[in-house]
Structures are given as C-alpha cells and as structure tokens.
Amino acid sequence: MKKLLIAAIFAVMAVLYIGYYEALEDGDIETIxxxxxxxxxxxxxxxxxxxxxxxREVERLxxxxxQLIIEYCRYRLGIDTQLKSQDDVERCRRK
Length: 95
Known about the structure:
This protein is α+β, with helices and mostly antiparallel strands.
C-alpha cells in the first residue's frame, strides 16, 4: 500500500512538472522532454522555434497560435509575456 501511494505521488508530480514538444530533427519528428517552470496539467506544448519554417511575424499569428506560444514561454522558459511584438517572440527562443 505504501509503495502504491509513493508511486501515485510520483506520477502526479511527473504530470505536473514534465512536459514535451515535438521537433523536426534530421527529417524525423523527435519528442523533446523538459521540466516545467510552473506546475500545470498540460503535457504537450508548441515550440514555435522547433522548426524553422514555423516562425512567423507576431502580427500574423492567430489567437490560438499566440496562446500556444504564450503557454510554451511560461511553462518551458518561465517567461510571462503577452506576445505583443516580434521581440517577445524572440525572447521565447530557447538559449
């Protein structure tokens, strides 16, 4: 019973603090795991910089795309942004 409780706690912590996104690497889609800066139940994130072809001007982003990028920046990088300018998009580039 004690081991089951510990396993359950570990599983909940993993869901809250581990996320992933998919990136095109050498023609293959790779899953990139990361530790979230803030806990959330969301597991899959969208990294605009993962594929060079995905980068667009901030003015041309749909509301849905903008929200996906804002969530990635917050949970992956710990950056809170409203994504108002191209500089905000560049700040969300992983160093």
